[in-house]
Design brief:
Elements lengths: L5 H23 L3 H25 L2 H40 L2 H10 L4 H12 L1 H10 L1 H46 L4 H39 L5 H11 L8 H13 L3 H27 L8 H15 L3 H43 L1
Helix pairs in contact: 2-3, 2-7, 2-8, 3-4, 3-7, 4-10, 5-6, 8-9, 8-11, 8-13, 9-10, 10-11, 12-13
Length: 364
């Protein structure tokens, strides 16, 4: 039987700990997105939960009330508009693909003539014979599509359940969990706290500094599109919200083509109104609200780093990469700053030690 030295036993034990922690991390990896989002939401909603708990007499009731409120405010409207968004996006893409040239594409954006695609779909749905014929011709492809949709729906439902349950747990037991992490993390306490603060600040920056600004611009743009009779207003409003990630000129990538399309379609007054709202309202929202929201949450990343980290995250990690990319970039920046401070401290300690060693020699 081989007897390990104390040092070898320590190394072996650390290896076992590393393997177990890595295995646990891999277990939670498929659900990292809802867990990260739940942590950010719980941190930002905790002050409100404490106020509600004082009125209701318990954290569990307050956390449950906030989760129900979250479902009613966010997920119910999203579920209700999902079908409309999907149909509008397909309709918009079909109209653009059928257009000939830039002028035709711009007019197609503001035109609601989708009778061909809609009529075909409606005729198929109203004719059992056509449905049977399509199933015979494309049965295998249809089964693959159905199975893919079912898998995506199941994954979405699991993610939603984990998110809501995690929000509840983090609201109730979040401080105790963080205290446990501080005690057991293999980092110095100062480093752990700085990385945790950076993690929270990144969430606030994405939700408040970036998200609220884009959401406000998207809402204003959607209302304008509806008022001017622009079709697929919900899809175009969502595109405006996404384009707001690019400061100053981002939203113009959407409303400027719409204004031009309205002008080319002969709707001169609507085009002038669209241009006026875009410059005076949507642009003002970006210039006024973005600095205001930034006081409540700052990413401390330049626009270039933010956009490239989002696009890089999307390319590497898929749809949720728009969160993971900026998070990794922000944590890496903080880690480099902490490493620089540690190097400065080490250098200062070396200089002080050298001075202490030189002092007795000079005295003698």
């Amino acid at each position: 039987m081989t007897i390990l030295s104390p040092r070898q036993q320590t190394v072996a034990f650390r290896g076992v700990v590393f393997v177990l922690v890595a295995a646990a991390a891999l277990t939670f990896l498929p659900l990292w997105a809802p867990l990260v989002l739940a942590c950010w939401v719980a941190v930002m909603a905790r002050p409100l939960m404490l106020r509600i708990s004082n009125a209701t007499g318990g954290r569990h009731r307050a956390a449950g009330a906030l989760v129900v409120l979250l479902v009613m405010i966010i997920f119910v409207p999203l579920a209700g508009s999902a079908v409309s968004l999907a149909r509008g996006a397909i309709d918009l893409g079909h109209s653009l693909l059928q257009s000939h040239g830039a002028k035709s594409a711009l007019v197609a954006i503001v035109s609601g003539d989708s009778s061909e695609s809609g009529g075909d779909a409606g005729g198929v749905l109203q004719s059992p014979e056509k449905i049977v014929s399509l199933l015979r011709e494309h049965g295998a492809q249809a089964m693959q599509i159905v199975s893919g949709v079912a898998g995506a729906a199941t994954e979405a439902l699991v993610g939603l359940f984990v998110f809501l349950y995690a929000v509840y747990v983090f609201l109730v037991d979040g401080p105790g969990m963080y205290e446990w992490i501080e005690k057991h993390a293999p980092l110095e306490l100062e480093h752990t706290r700085r990385l945790a603060a950076t993690f929270v600040e990144t969430g606030r920056g994405l939700f408040v500094g970036v998200g609220l600004t884009g959401l406000t611009q998207g809402i204003v743009a959607t209302i304008t599109y509806v008022a001017l009779g622009v079709p697929r207003a919900l899809v175009l409003g969502l595109l405006t919200c996404v384009a707001s990630l690019i400061p100053s000129i981002g939203t113009a990538l959407v409303w400027v083509p719409i204004a031009i399309g309205l002008a080319l379609a002969g709707k001169t007054v609507a085009a002038i109104v669209m241009a006026g709202v875009g410059v005076l309202v949507i642009g003002t929202v970006d210039n006024v609200l973005r600095p205001m929201f930034a006081r409540f949450g700052q990413l401390e990343l330049s626009t270039f780093v933010l956009l490239t980290s989002i696009f890089g995250g999307l390319a590497i990690f898929g749809g949720w990469g728009f969160i993971l990319g900026p998070l990794f970039a922000r944590l890496a920046k903080e880690a480099l700053e902490m490493a620089r401070i540690d190097r400065l401290h080490d250098k200062r300690d070396e200089i002080n030690a050298a001075r202490a060693d030189a002092a007795p020699a000079s005295e003698t």
